[in-house]
Design brief:
Aminopeptidase, 7-stranded mixed β-sheet, 4 helices, 30% helix
C-alpha cells in the first residue's frame, strides 16, 4: 500500500466515535481486556487535545478511519507522541510510520527540539516502529520503554 491510498489529516468532530473505537480496540487486542474508564481523554478528543493546543491526526482510506496519533506539548521544546493506533487489517502497510513521521514534522514546525514516547516493554511492534522512525531508547523500567528523537 502506498501513501497515495490513505490520507492523513487533522481530527474533525465527526471522527470522534471511530477514533475512540479504533484506539480502544487496539488496546483491548493487545491487553486482552480494556477498562474504558482509564482512557477519559478519548471521551472527547477535541476537548482533550485540540482545545488544549495539542495535535490529533487521523488516517483515512476512503470513508474508513484506519489510524490515529497525537502530539502533546510538554513545554516549549519537547513533544510527546501518544495514541498512535492502526486498524488491525491495515497494519504493516506504512500507515503507522506515516502517522509518526507526520507528527515529527508537526513538532519541527512548532519549534520543538525533542520528541519522547513511552510504551510497555512487551509491545515489540510499537518499539520497532519508533526505532524505524529514528527514536532511541533512553530509559527502561520494569514495565515501560522510553524513547526519544532529537530534532536538531
Amino acid at each position: 500500500m502506498s501513501s497515495s491510498e490513505w490520507l492523513i489529516r487533522p481530527f474533525e468532530p465527526g471522527d470522534q466515535k471511530a477514533a475512540r473505537e479504533l484506539i480502544l480496540d487496539g488496546l483491548g487486542e493487545h491487553f486482552g481486556w480494556i477498562d474504558e474508564s482509564r482512557n477519559p481523554d478519548l471521551d472527547d478528543i477535541a476537548a482533550s487535545y485540540i482545545a488544549s493546543g495539542h495535535v490529533f491526526i487521523v488516517a483515512r482510506i476512503g470513508a474508513c478511519l484506519v489510524g490515529t496519533g497525537a502530539l502533546i506539548s510538554e513545554g516549549r521544546e519537547t513533544g510527546r507522541i501518544v495514541r498512535v493506533s492502526v486498524a488491525r487489517e491495515q497494519r504493516r502497510r506504512g500507515i503507522g510510520r506515516a502517522l509518526v513521521e507526520h507528527l515529527v514534522q508537526t513538532a519541527r514546525h512548532r519549534g520543538m527540539t525533542r520528541i519522547v514516547v513511552e510504551t510497555i516493554k512487551e509491545w515489540g511492534d510499537a518499539i520497532g516502529l519508533y526505532r524505524c522512525c529514528g527514536f532511541r531508547e533512553y530509559d527502561r523500567d520494569e514495565a515501560d520503554v522510553h524513547l526519544a528523537l532529537k530534532l536538531r
